[in-house]
Amino acid sequence: MTGASQETDRSRLVMKFGGTSMADLERIRRAARIVAAEAAKDKKVAVVVSAMAGKTNELVAWTDGAGAPAAGLYPQGAMSDDEYDVVVASGEQVTSGLLALTLRNMGLKARSWMGWQIPIITDDAHGRARIEDVPGEVLGAAMDAGEIAIIPGFQGVTRGGRITTLGRGGSDTSAVAVAAALNAPCDIYTDVDGVYTTDPRIESRARRLARVSYEEMLEMASLGAKVLQTRSVELAMHKRVPVRVLSSFIEPDENGKLPEDAGTLICDEDEIVEKRIVSGVTMSRDEARITLLGLSDRTDAPADVFTRLAEANVNVDMIVQSQARTEGAVNLTFTTGRRDAARASELMQSLKSEIGFEEIRVDDDVAKVSVIGVGMRSHAGVAQMMFRALADKGIKFQAISTSEIKISVLIESAYAELAVRALHAAYGLDTL
Question: Rounded to two decimals, what is the model's pTM?
Answer without folding.
Answer: 0.85
